[in-house]
Amino acid sequence: MVTARAGLVAAVAGSLPQVVVAAPNGKNGSSSILSFVDPLIGTTNGGHVFPGATLPFGMAKAVADVNVENQGGFSTGDVTGNITGFSHMHDSGTGGSPSLGNFPLFPQTSCPDDLIDNCVFPIQDRAVPRINGTAEAHPGYFAVTMENHIHTEMTVTNHTALYRFTFPQANSTSNSTISPLILADLIDLPLSRINGSASVDAKTGRISGSGVFSPSFGIGTYTSHFCADFSGADVRDTGVFMNNRAGTEPKNVSVVADGTNNSPDILPAGALTRFHAPKHNNQILARVGVSFISVQQACHNAEREIPNFDFAGVRAAAEKAWEDTLGVIQVKPGGVNESLQTVFWSGVYRAGISPQDYTGENPLWKSSEPYYDSYYCIWDSFRSIHSLITIVDPYSQIQMIRSLIEIYRQEGWLPDCRMSLCKGHTQGGSNADVVLADTYVKFGKMAAEYGVDWKTAYEALVNDAENEPANWDVEGRGGLHSWRSLHYIPTDDYDPYGVGPFTRSISRTVEYAYDDYCIAEVARGLGNHGDYEKYIGTSEYWKNMWKADQNSSINGTDTGFTGFLMPKYLNGTWGFQDPIFCSPLLNFTSCYLNPDGHETYEGSSWLYSFFVPHDMAALITTMGGPSTFVKRLDYFHESGLLYVGDEQGFLPVFQYHYAGRPGKSAERAHFYIPSQFNDTISGIPGNDDSGAMGSFAALTMMGIFPNPGQDIYFITPPFFEEVSIRNKLTGKTATIRNINFDASYQNIYIQSAKLNGKTYTKNYLQHSFFLDGGVLELTLGRNESSWGTRPEDIPPSLSTGHNITGYMF
Ligand SMILES: *[C@@H]1O[C@H](CO)[C@@H](O)[C@H](O)[C@H]1NC(C)=O
Ligand SMILES: *[C@@H]1O[C@H](CO)[C@@H](O)[C@H](O)[C@H]1NC(C)=O
Ligand SMILES: *[C@@H]1O[C@H](CO)[C@@H](O)[C@H](O)[C@H]1NC(C)=O
Ligand SMILES: *[C@@H]1O[C@H](CO)[C@@H](O)[C@H](O)[C@H]1NC(C)=O
Ligand SMILES: *[C@@H]1O[C@H](CO)[C@@H](O)[C@H](O)[C@H]1NC(C)=O
Ligand SMILES: *[C@@H]1O[C@H](CO)[C@@H](O)[C@H](O)[C@H]1NC(C)=O
Ligand SMILES: *[C@@H]1O[C@H](CO)[C@@H](O)[C@H](O)[C@H]1NC(C)=O
Ligand SMILES: *[C@@H]1O[C@H](CO)[C@@H](O)[C@H](O)[C@H]1NC(C)=O
Ligand SMILES: *[C@@H]1O[C@H](CO)[C@@H](O)[C@H](O)[C@H]1NC(C)=O
Ligand SMILES: *[C@@H]1O[C@H](CO)[C@@H](O)[C@H](O)[C@H]1NC(C)=O
Ligand SMILES: *[C@@H]1O[C@H](CO)[C@@H](O)[C@H](O)[C@H]1NC(C)=O
Ligand SMILES: *[C@@H]1O[C@H](CO)[C@@H](O)[C@H](O)[C@H]1NC(C)=O
């Protein structure tokens, strides 16, 4: 591990409290929670985690940017990845190109021969290796030392990054004094700049500017602004650079679209301030405010949030914010090692990074509603992130729901993916439908009291289901005419009504079906029985692509399982796509949004054939009954067909619950954690996707994985002796306690359970447990038992009577 977590851990080692308690004053216990957060987990091998300094859902996200695997700014794996600058906004865990990273600062200790022009300016030329092992990351803090011995620390407020550069001492072989130069570059991580301008104030050294950039997985452009002030050294001179030349005149620089954007040849340009030797400790502080509104607002944000460059104070406030967020959870480890505690707390932490709260920073419309951005992407986040936020920070979840509804009001569509104020690409269905329904059924009434307008939300849901947009690559759904007339998305669809990637007919069909089920739930709650019946009907359309006699072979050997989702043409005849094709570990050729893409997205027919979250009873019958279903699910997990590093892999870990085998879900949970989720820098199996992998680990280890969109949590034994969660809105605490717990996980099978002292046989919980508080006691043993196995103990399915209704109006 390239982490320097050791210091903090040492501070609590030996006195590790048995119960890690978040004391109300944020002292003792809660600071030991933060020592179990390692932001460097998932910073190599495709995790793309942003490991820098941020507040919960904060807009400012500061980190060192490197020139390899830099989706999240910094990465740890390839030690030859060099630092190109320090920038102030990022996204976390994304799959495609890097995001944001606009206007990086880059410090140099002195310019050779004391000539500004002899410092290095272009991003490709100036990159400096970091010293291996110096990266240090904690909630609200990040630090790293470059090989030129400049040590850079950073912390943040909501819209402002604060950097502290410590320059190396001058020594006899160099000049006797140093004269640091700090530049601000009109560039971003994906090198997407279209145009930009920067200026520098000769007196104060303030550098400010603006630029137009492209989003990392979407359409359109966005404009961003920054304002950098310095403290700790007197200004010596100021100027600008272009290409590899710099001078003290003029004081501003402007670059227009030069036709080379998205190219490494993009014209280097920016402004700079040079200082006399720092006054104290060879340190210079740089405070960078960011804004999407104006330079003036960027400066104002910085002045308001960090008036006096108090690094320690800003860092302490950031830690306090994280203690408040994480501190609603208490864990009694019961002897479980620090490594697993780190996996857990780091997972909860990463689910608190995105989406970002850009309220007050949205130039697109005027509104008093909150504005969150970087729903990146809801196709990923609906499966665990929003369910975890709902439990630990329901107020923020409500703000996010309000923001989604406002995006619909203003732009006419709910987003499916959104970043940098732009529309992102849709991967499957219209999955905001699931996020809205999830909140509606779990605590919709309370959300309404906090300002969620369910009437407009419902309008947005119906819009997704009924109206095909001109560009369904970025909103809504495609193929709606065929959906209505044929009741599936044909593989050779005739769809002149809108434009999008005409691929993924199987995965879109099963996702649209589930999205419609979610709409039906809300319709029912709102008393709209006609719509309820209609969308329940369309939620069964997955059956229309089910080819009952289809079998599947691997390397010529029949797997023995029959019945798979298969391509189906307009004329009603079947097509063929090998059921194992698009399994990430087997054959994954053009399984993204490629123009030559296939009928399943980022997963095989094997995988999508399990995706009927609302009617598992019908699926189990279709697959030949519970015992065949369990064998098939086992095979799916054990053959390499399931890749848990893609979010569709999460639900199958727990689908045994529907076959009356909750013990097998617990086995699978332990199969994947820690083998695939651990506390190494490569400790997550796929892109974190805004905290998806983190929230999967956290929910799984708490023993309450959801079936998102429904008021259901599958009960499995928590990975700790006891877990408690205080609901921030109701103030009530829900506790799950394992009896006969053993830290070596021999006893992972529930023998019996009690909820608030009464025998409890259902193998699932509802959200009321978290709202009302209570105690669930699970008595564990070494073997599967009859607990939670009877038909009446199994979570409800559409075809067995869907009695879970959540809050009704
Ligand atoms: C909190 O920590 C301080 C200093 O480490 C210690 O003296 C004090 O006893 C602790 N308080 C509790 C309640 O653990
Ligand atoms: C990083 O810098 C070192 C030393 O200058 C160089 O050898 C290496 O190729 C650079 N790596 C990258 C990815 O730029
Ligand atoms: C050393 O620094 C001083 C002022 O910072 C400058 O005047 C002088 O030219 C420098 N000398 C060298 C050799 O860089
Ligand atoms: C960097 O440090 C890590 C762990 O501290 C070590 O495994 C790795 O080999 C080091 N790399 C180099 C190039 O020294
Ligand atoms: C950051 O913004 C959030 C949301 O508006 C607010 O609740 C929080 O107090 C702010 N944090 C700080 C440290 O100002
Ligand atoms: C002295 O300064 C030079 C030039 O900055 C640097 O290369 C060298 O490593 C420094 N020596 C020491 C002992 O710090
Ligand atoms: C920068 O680009 C934006 C968007 O393309 C455009 O509106 C603006 O006029 C451009 N500004 C300059 C100075 O070229
Ligand atoms: C199929 O056969 C190839 C070549 O023998 C082998 O590499 C691969 O692992 C096999 N795949 C499966 C799923 O058994
Ligand atoms: C149905 O359509 C498919 C795809 O265009 C075509 O290959 C097949 O021959 C058609 N079958 C019939 C019976 O028309
Ligand atoms: C993967 O599947 C594609 C499309 O079916 C096929 O063309 C290719 O040969 C397959 N590759 C391997 C290694 O099986
Ligand atoms: C940690 O997780 C990664 C990613 O899933 C995995 O490749 C690695 O084998 C795991 N390490 C251990 C020691 O289990
Ligand atoms: C659903 O409710 C009905 C009537 O209250 C009841 O008879 C039935 O058993 C319930 N079904 C489930 C799965 O709970």
From TrEMBL:
Gene3D superfamilies: 2.70.98.10, alpha-1,2-mannosidase (1.20.1050.60), alpha-1,2-mannosidases domains (1.20.1610.10), GH92 mannosidase domain (3.30.2080.10). Residues 36-291 form the Glycosyl hydrolase family 92 N-terminal domain. The keyword Hydrolase does not apply. It comes from the Eukaryota. Residues 1-22 form the signal peptide. Residues 297-781 form the Glycosyl hydrolase family domain. Keywords: Signal. This is Glycoside hydrolase family 92 protein.
